[in-house]
Amino acid sequence: MNKIRIAHEAPLCIFDQVTDLTDYQYCLVHLMDESSEYRDKFVNLCKKKYEVILDNSIFELGTAFKGEDYFKWVKELKPSWYIIPDVLEDCEGTIQQAEEWIATYGKKVPKRSKSIGVVQGKTLEEIIRCYKSLEWAGVDMIAISFDYSLYEKMFPHPNQKLSWMMGRVQLLGILLDMGIINPDIPHHLLGAGLPQEGLYYRDYNWIYSTDTSNPIVHGIKGKKYIENQGLWSKESQKLHEMIHYPEEEIDMDLVEYNISEFRNYWNGRKN
After folding, report:
1. What CATH number belongs to 5-266?
2. Whole-prediction pTM value?
């Protein structure tokens, strides 16, 4: 069974505890400019060569950090991985951004920092075109997001979060059956709306990692994962909006329970 590496974004007050419970850390680049405490934590982790993925913050901001604003943090942090600038659900825009980034900065990034290209598109054909273009461009890892609008067409359901979950499951299966997935390239799954999605991926050895604040946010909100079921709804609040959440209002036992259950879904329960 494949062991998928898992990271959970967390408020600063429990950052260290959560780091000890995860496989790597996930850095939102816009918070590097906004919080000196956040910045110091990731500077220290990267100096220790702890595995870190640097995200361009497109999910949080709607548009990605790019150009010199982004490159300065790739250069300073020297993260294990960094996500190339992309455009939400825009195949051609994402391909253009990737080509421009690689042409301008590809040879300037630190040698230890590997690139992640995010597949974007509104149709299966666009998803395939974007995937192949990123592969041909030579990115080191390919990422697939949890919330493409395409999923709601692939798996229509009144529960949008279930549509997203099963839509990505179906998309990955289709790409694999069509021979689009390159199993020699590691893949990252961006986000996870429902924790039980991981049950479908245990035999996919080409999935390297995933990131989600899901167990943290739901723990903070007092929502406990249902044993052997997970969740059937999802809090819409983004973790970066809770980065300064007060520690006295967090039930750490519940957060740790949700983290443990999430790992059980994705990597199997420890005996």
Report:
1. 3.20.20.105
2. 0.96
**Rg of the chain over CA atoms, in angstroms?**
18
Output the CA angle 61-64-65, nearest 5 degrees.
105
Residue 1's pLDDT is what?
A: 67
pLDDT digits (tens, 9 = 90+) for 59-73: 998 999 989 999 999
Q: List the strands of the sheet with 81-83, edge to edge.
A: 5-7, 207-211, 187-190, 141-145, 114-118, 81-83, 52-55, 25-28
For 91-100, the pLDDT digits (tens) are 999 999 999 9
The answer on pLDDT for 253 being more than 50 is yes
Distance CA 119, CA 211 (A): 16
Q: What are the DSSP calls for 66-121, one per residue?
A: -HHHHHHHHHHH--SEEEPP--TT-HHHHHHHHHHHHHHHTTTS-TTPEEEEEP--
Q: Could you state, in order of their start, the residue ranges of all structural domains in the chain?
A: 5-266
Give Cα 197 distance to the centre of its chain.
14
